[in-house]
Automatic annotation (TrEMBL):
One Gene Ontology term, aspect cellular component: plasma membrane
Designated name of the protein: Diacylglycerol kinase family lipid kinase
Keywords: ATP-binding, Kinase, Nucleotide-binding, Transferase
Annotated SUPFAM superfamilies: NAD kinase/diacylglycerol kinase-like
Gene3D superfamilies for this protein: 2.60.200.40, Probable inorganic polyphosphate/atp-NAD kinase, domain 1 (3.40.50.10330)
Domain DAGKc: 5-135
A GO term, aspect molecular function: ATP binding
InterPro entries on file: ATP-NAD_kinase_N, Diacylglycerol_kinase_cat_dom, Lipid_Phosphate_FormReg, NAD/diacylglycerol_kinase_sf, YegS/DAGK_C
Organism taxonomic ancestry: Bacteria, Pseudomonadati, Bacteroidota, Cytophagia, Cytophagales
Length: 306
């Protein structure tokens, strides 16, 4: 593993559309910041088309000491997938709508503050997950939230207001699906409002779906919300926003390193993985990839001595 003073050759992967944020000054801000500190920087601008393949080719051509994702969770997941299994660490400059993984890693949400990670950092080696053969670093889910993410993705409107509007419309007619889950330690079958495959803890919306999950414990959690009556919705929402997932009588959690998820009535199912909706054939095989990704995180604050 490289030490702080050796992080000299950096690549920044910039997503021009993430978070609906103006990034016209971003490249010059990052370039100036890094050059003032003696760093060499290269930039890769995503297009939304074959970014993973092109990025992998670029990374194979030059030895970078770290690769930073400047975008939202989708951009972070793209760069993480390109780096997983190797020694080069991922850095994150949170510039998306939600920035869920960066929040779980205590990465500052301000660009200048996050850029400190180019010289002041520690390396966390975290697990990643394979969900039906697809890479996930953060959270994936089936059921209600996946439906909302897909509707949101197809729509024009952006921001938390649009998400809440779509969720309210869909909630009225939503029919929970029936799932069969077989993990390496238990089996569960029943209907669920939503089912989250969680490596991390918190959605970009600040909903804490998996408060006790650890990013480097060699396990993932399947967090289930049972179908619930309308009257229970405010209490469930309150618990989700206050790290109280386990306190609700409508939630359950399966902890495992491998699972098979079957939806008896469907051959294909909608899944959102790190914010990207996709349709996958069932059953879905889920497997942890222990300690497969190095990430730059802020150094642990040492207590000040008098
Ligand atoms: N130049 C581009 N034009 C259009 N779409 C792009 C471009 N570059 C990347 N994308 C798309 O951007 C999406 C990823 O966006 P990302 O998740 O980083 O931001 P976000 O959705 O605003 O934030 P968050 O996921 O944190 O809520 C992917 O679907 C990717 O295909």
């Amino acid at each position: 593993m490289v030490s702080p003073q050796q992080l000299c050759n950096l690549m920044f992967v910039l997503n021009p559309i993430s978070g609906d944020i103006d990034k016209s000054e971003l490249e010059s801000t990052i370039g100036r910041y890094c050059r003032e500190r003696g760093r060499h920087v290269a930039f890769f601008h995503t297009t939304g088309e074959q970014d993973l393949e092109i990025l992998r080719r670029k990374l194979a051509q030059e030895a970078y000491h770290a690769v930073f994702a400047a975008g939202g969770d989708g951009t972070v997941s793209l760069v993480a997938e390109a780096l997983a299994g190797g020694q080069v660490p991922l850095g994150i400059i949170p510039l998306g709508s939600g920035n869920g993984l960066s929040k779980d890693l205590n990465i500052p949400q301000d660009v200048e503050q996050a850029l400190r990670l180019t010289w002041d950092y520690q390396v966390l080696t975290m697990d990643t997950i394979q969900v039906g053969g697809n890479f996930s670093a953060h959270l994936a889910d089936l059921g209600f939230n996946a439906l909302i993410v897909e509707r949101f993705d197809k729509g024009e409107a952006r921001g938390p207001g649009a998400y809440v509007r779509i969720a309210t419309q869909e909630y009225i007619s939503y029919e929970p699906e029936h799932y069969h889950i077989k993990t390496d330690s238990e089996e569960w079958e029943g209907p669920a409002f939503m089912l989250t495959i969680a490596n991390a803890n918190t959605f970009g919306s600040n909903v804490v779906i998996n408060p006790e999950g650890k990013l480097n414990d060699g396990q993932f959690e399947i967090c289930l919300i049972d179908p619930f009556p309308n009257a229970a919705a405010p209490g469930i929402l309150y618990n989700l926003y206050t790290s109280g997932f386990n306190q609700s009588s409508y939630t359950r959690r399966l902890c495992c390193s491998r699972a098979t998820i079957t939806i008896p009535s469907q051959k294909q199912v909608l899944v959102q993985i790190d914010g990207e909706p996709m349709h996958l054939p069932t059953p879905i095989e889920v497997e942890i990839m222990p300690r497969s990704l190095h990430v730059l995180v802020p150094p642990i604050q040492q207590p000040t001595t008098a």
